[in-house]
Amino acid sequence: MTDKQKHWETVYRTKAPDAVSWYRPHLDTSLALIERAAPDRDAAVLDVGGGASTLVDDLLARGYRDLSVLDISAAALDIARERLGEAADAVTWLAADLLDAPLPQARYDLWHDRAVFHFLTEAEQRARYLRQLARALKPGGHAVLATFGPQGPLKCSGLDTLRYDAQGLARVLGDGLALLDSTLEFHATPFGTTQQFLCALFRKTSSDTTGDLH
């Protein structure tokens, strides 16, 4: 087990799902962008870094039938599976490090990431992420990314993070992903503090998603 895996396994084994700073009962902005970009309920949706998030619950409730959740923490996925009960059988669960996961080529219509990308503080990590995104997302598919915004924290869960505005994120993602929309919102943590998030919607225009990684 890598240090990164150990870190996140410890987080999810020692803290309640609603006792982490990123907890939100419902990811309303993500849900709205997903329904806008992929209204077909047969669309293949991949939630990377989904952890114990309720996004999968809400997508199932809205009738989506091809859902996959990937997280580096098996404990996080176990929490989500237990919460869903029998409905969990309708979901594909992938316990893996996104940067190394054997994702199928051109499999997904929509890629969702809330709070993974901003932990990638090294250019090499971002390059690997973009290769995975380019491989797994169908041509014309969409990506919904939520990162810390310009006023967001520089650390989360004891780890360094990066902050982005919409144009900065678009530059990093490269010309292969066209920015369609973005919004800044303040997330209220369970501890009474706030964190600024950037939520952005992109469409894949080519297989080249290697932007300004530095």
Shape: globular
Low-confidence residue ranges = none
CATH fold-level label: Rossmann fold
Estimated structural class? alpha/beta
State the CATH architecture: 3-Layer(aba) Sandwich
Q: What count of helical segments does DSSP give?
A: 6
Number of strands: 9
| Proportion of beta-strand residues | 25-35%
Order of neighbouring strands in the sheet with most strands: 3-2-1-4-5-9-8
Radius of gyration: 16 Å
Order of helices and strands: HHEHEHEEHEEEHEE
Average pLDDT works out at 92
Q: What is the top-level CATH class?
A: Alpha Beta
Notable traits:
214 residues; alpha/beta; Rossmann fold; 7-stranded mixed sheet; two-stranded antiparallel sheet; 6 helices; 29% strand
Structure description:
α4 links the parallel β2 and β3. The protein has one domain: Rossmann fold (3-Layer(aba) Sandwich). The protein is globular and about 40 Å long. The chain is an alpha/beta fold and 214 residues long. The strands form two sheets. A seven-stranded mixed beta sheet has the order 3-2-1-4-5-9-8, sandwiched between helices. A two-stranded antiparallel sheet has the order 6-7.
Which SSEs are present, and which pair or pack?
Blueprint: H1 3-14, H2 28-37, E1 44-48, H3 55-61, E2 66-71, H4 74-84, E3 91-95, E4 108-114, H5 123-136, E5 137-148, E6 155-156, E7 159-160, H6 166-173, E8 177-188, E9 194-204
Parallel strand pairs: 1-2, 1-4, 2-3, 4-5
Antiparallel strand pairs: 5-9, 6-7, 8-9
